[in-house]
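Thread: quick sanity check before group meeting

JM: Hey all, I'm pulling together slides for Thursday and realized we never actually wrote out the predicted structure for the chain we discussed last week. Dropping the sequence here so it's in one place. If anyone has concerns about the input, flag it before I start.
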Amino acid sequence: MEVKGKKIIVTGGAAGIGKQLVIKLLNRGAYVSALDINADNLKKLKNDLNNNRLSTYKIDISNLEEIQKFKKQYLNDNKDLDILINNAGVIQPFTSVDNLNINDIERVMNINFYGPVYLIKEFLPIIKERKEAYIVNVGSMGGFFPFPKQTAYGASKAALGLFTEGLYAELLDSNVRVMMVLPGAINTDIAANSKVEIAGMGDSNIPMTSPEEAAYLIIEAIKKEKWKIYVGKDSKFMNFLYKLNAKKAIGYINKLMNKR
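JM (edit): ok, ran it. Output follows.
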């Protein structure tokens, strides 16, 4: 599916992978609506890009009422929607479940799972009216492989993953394509944007994929009408390792992370 001339929503569009998606989609001739909770970042994005095919909206995707209001505003501005990219996400504080605040668990579930679900529920009827359309959900390597001290985060992405696969099955005979994106470690400010601190993150030897490369791979996957992609060598490797021997893989990662 070509993105030129398509109307596209990108959540988390003012930073990280989302920002790079916005830039690259605009460069390919798309009409992009960037959603983000950070008004300052949105303003900077708008000023820096100075593109009349870019619209920005400040919105908390975990708030259903805000999404419903945004839907009315969006349809008034754009009339229709071809591609929905649910990219926004946050991580939890880097701690074990017994030390994790219930509010932190609810926060990651609300943003990482319910946010995309709300947007899909509101916009699916509009998307289905298009001749060709796409729903892209950005998950995480942590959604298929359990990482210690990111258990709630992983659960939120795992829930999104199965929801996406179920949606894919339901829409197989429709004009709407569905894709799950499973990135590994991405060199973004997700920790700062999530308002959490991870000791030693800056000194990590984990190989990271750049947000520019991740965005490029996602857009190419849309072009090729993929249904699932693993972004980064680490994501591909962990998928292989987990399928080979899940128990040993979990033990290996647990030891590795406890050394940090």
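AS: nice. The longest strand covers residues 176-183. The domain at 7-258 is CATH 3.40.50.720 (Rossmann fold).
JM: adding both to the slides.
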